[in-house]
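Curious: can you check?
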Amino acid sequence: MKVLYIGNSIEKITCGADAVNKRNIQLLQDFFSEKLIFQNLIENTTKDKLLGYMGGLTPLVEKQILQTIKDNNIQVVFISHSALGRVAKKIKSNFPNIKIITFYHNIEKQYAKTYLKYQGLKALPFYFLATTNEYLSVKYSDIHIVLNDRDNNLFFNYYGKYADAVLPVSYEDKFQEDKLQLFSSANEKFTILFIGVAFFPNVSGITWFIDNVLINIEAELIIIGKGMDDYFKDLKNKKVKVYGYVEDLSSYYYNANVVIAPIFTGGGMKTKIAEAMMYGKNILGTEEAFEGYELIKETHFLFNTAEDCHEIITVLKNNEETSKYNKLSRKCFLDNYSNAIIKQKFTDLFVEINSK
């Protein structure tokens, strides 16, 4: 079985979608090895968007995809995200026997509605592009994979059927126990870590935290994420340090007392929750931040108001037994969100496809 993967190879992870795509690529490579062929995407022009293309698909890329399928006798196409529905339709029209698998990082229709609500009429072009392409993905794909049960229910509500598989966020385990000792000493200030790109749910959430919670506690907040340094360049707050893209986040995770995730809107799963679990962190998050995750109440703390968040941080900060490392959080990662766990589910899916 030859498989075509439509999506960019991931050299460095700059956002949650990159992390999931990199995981998916690794699983496909493990399963198909030399039988896996790649088709990269490119940046869209305004003209492309006017023609109904988005997500890195262009007329040229579409033509290359069809030629690659023909030249290599492709039997399965794995589409990296649901904004590429136009090419799913094109493939199915030209090669009706090919199996098309689409991975849904969120439900674009739901996300586009939320984005339109926050951004106003200027978001209408994106709304129409995203919803149209996702509709085409649903119509012309044979296998649909979502990240969590909420997205599966949204999928049903919008499209009248459930996805074929639920594969949550997972990470390759990079935790190094010997490094714990390097960061085990108490910080000069209680350190709160937030990681996320300059994307509207992230910037609005962490701004809310700064304005409503951090102002009332003695702690240091570290913000890391692509574009965050530019977004907060005019922020004058001695309690806050802001960095842009950082290649290796491990030292920040090891050193943080807690990880914060004040996310109130969005879809899919927040990949940095799984990454924080990998490093054994105590995590404070909203219902949206924890969506799709198995939680352990002794290490994963839910809040939805500033008062709740302030109280949880105060208790953790004043408790001498609070450690930078919580073995329960790490166990939750190993049991549910390591690549090794997800690999078996992925393998079972392709064994089933191969048998049909």
Observations:
- The chain has a mean pLDDT of 93.
